[in-house]
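Figure 3 (text version): structure tokens given as input.
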């Protein structure tokens, strides 16, 4: 199904003992676009990501990925279908090298198409060689050559966040969920991240859903922005449209 949005969220409700974390949330994520998901603390952004990667169950509403209903799928199946993510508190193996962490990502998805293609390339005879080549490409793309053989634990936080991106990209997702990629980064690193997110979308032809508190980054990198507050969608549109939405301005002022 190449037509229609890649992701369609419809009337999604999630409740935790009296707290309504998501309240009838509906929106689309268009193919090949970068969609920003914003909202004050507790708005429900992480809950939504957790529904998308099937870490949370939901009883009301639906999520359709590439025309298929997520509710019926296991967590593993969702990853295999092509939803990849990064985590706010990084999901890396600290005692392993950068390169090996990225290779772990390669195995996180059954990537038969990739292997069938890679095994036909000159000089690639085994699955291990195919994985090594792909991991090396990602290391280069992310500018991690100099640290490829270092253990993740030894690296500065900003570098570790790049490795986390590499791990997620290695699984060749069609939809990449980025959970606060700018958190903890310095000013220059945030600037570089904006260009990197766009380069990732262009180079790997994927669709990005970005949860982020750094407004400068979201507004400069996103094609479309969805805003949540207290579990409800309060605004949606281009960055320019969303930025002048009174309900959004109010939601942020109310939390300052
Ligand atoms: P932040 O920007 O601070 O990460 P958020 O927009 O990601 O916030 P969520 O973490 O999704 O917000 O939280 C939405 C609401 O749901 C909050 O009131 C939170 O306390 C609640 N919540 C989230 N996960 C759980 C859980 N597992 N059990 C109980 N309550 C939860």
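Below: residues designed for each position.
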């Amino acid at each position: 199904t190449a037509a229609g949005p890649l992701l369609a969220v419809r009337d999604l409700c999630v409740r935790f003992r009296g707290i309504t974390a998501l309240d009838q949330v509906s929106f689309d994520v268009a193919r090949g676009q970068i969609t920003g998901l914003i909202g004050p603390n507790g708005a429900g952004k992480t809950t939504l990501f957790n529904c998308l990667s099937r870490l949370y169950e939901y009883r009301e509403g639906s999520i359709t990925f590439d025309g298929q209903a997520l509710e019926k799928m296991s967590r593993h199946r969702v990853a295999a279908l092509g939803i990849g993510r990064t985590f706010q508190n990084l999901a890396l193996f600290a005692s392993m090298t950068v390169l090996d962490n990225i290779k772990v990502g390669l195995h996180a998805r059954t990537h038969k198409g990739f292997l069938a293609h890679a095994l036909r390339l000159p000089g690639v005879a085994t699955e291990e060689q195919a994985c090594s080549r792909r991991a090396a490409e990602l290391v280069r793309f992310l500018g991690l050559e100099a640290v490829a053989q270092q253990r993740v634990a030894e690296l500065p936080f900003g570098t570790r966040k790049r490795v986390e991106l590499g791990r997620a990209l290695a699984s060749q997702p069609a939809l990449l969920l980025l959970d606060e990629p700018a958190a903890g980064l310095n000013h220059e690193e945030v600037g570089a991240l904006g260009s990197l997110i766009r380069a990732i979308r262009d180079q790997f032809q994927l669709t990005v859903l970005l949860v982020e508190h750094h407004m400068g980054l979201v507004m400069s990198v996103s094609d479309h922005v969805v805003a949540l507050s207290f579990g409800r969608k309060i605004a949606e549109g281009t960055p320019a449209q969303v930025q002048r939405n009174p309900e959004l301005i109010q939601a942020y002022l109310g939390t300052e």
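The chain has a mean pLDDT of 88.
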